[in-house]
Specification:
Elements lengths: L1 E2 L5 E3 L4 E5 L3 E7 L2 E4 L5 H12 L6 E2 L6 H4 L23 H8 L12 H7 L7 E9 L5 E11 L5 E12 L10 H15 L7 E4 L7
Parallel strand pairs: 7-10
Antiparallel strand pairs: 1-6, 2-3, 3-4, 4-5, 7-8, 8-9
Length: 213
């Protein structure tokens, strides 16, 4: 490769580098001193220094040579790092994941959750549980939300809501999440059914998206 005075300059992190024709870099200025890079012999290094410091009006032929150590990446200091990956097989503790999904109390305002009554009624196989869930999506498909509630019907026909919750999902340029209304509806259904998973009696769930079926 051959370079001459017409080569441009560009700023580097540690100083100014001279860029020869053909985009070849072989000199850098560190502490106001020129240092020759990747030169084969001491004589060639002296020629490069003289060209950089004084001459610069004649052509300079430079051969860029990488050592075997450099090609083998042994000149770079490495530090061992790693992370232990743990599987989430059935039987592992999934309480934290369920807690995030269910979002008990989120979006419910001042509503008082009847956890103790729910747990007591859940053991009776003759009591039917009614579940309701829904989901929504913003117009730009980047923000979604879902909600759910569970209730029982008294003998007089009135409903008593026992628990409720909700959550949200975000699809930004920094994530690989794709949102649609069906997904948000499914999250609401999954959250509510997760909360009611131990109900011993019949469960009837109401949704308004047939895509979940």
């Amino acid at each position: 490769m051959r370079g001459n005075r017409s080569g441009g300059r560009r700023n580097g992190r540690e100083g100014i580098k001279v860029v020869f024709n053909g985009s070849c870099e072989n000199l850098e200025e560190i502490g106001r001193k020129w240092r020759a890079l990747d030169l084969d012999t001491e004589a060639e290094e002296c020629r490069a220094r003289a060209w950089a410091d004084d001459v610069r009006d004649t052509d300079l032929e430079v051969r860029i040579i990488s050592s075997a150590e450099h090609c083998a990446c042994t000149t770079i200091e490495r530090k061992a790092c790693g992370r232990v990956a743990e599987s989430k097989v059935p039987g592992d503790d999934d309480s934290h994941m369920r807690e995030q999904l269910e979002g008990v109390g989120i979006g419910c305002g001042d509503f008082v959750q009847y956890h103790e009554e729910f747990n007591r009624l859940a053991t009776d196989p003759d009591i039917e549980l009614l579940g309701f869930s829904d989901g929504s999506l913003s117009g730009d498909y980047t923000n979604g939300g879902y909600g759910w509630l569970v209730a029982v019907k008294h003998a007089n026909g009135k409903l008593k809501v026992l628990a409720g919750g909700g959550g949200a999902a975000i699809a930004s340029h920094a994530t690989n999440v794709l949102l649609n209304t069906t997904r948000m509806e499914a999250l609401g259904l999954a959250a509510g059914m997760s909360y009611a998973r131990n109900w011993a009696g019949k469960v009837k769930w109401y949704i308004d998206n047939k895509g979940l079926l």
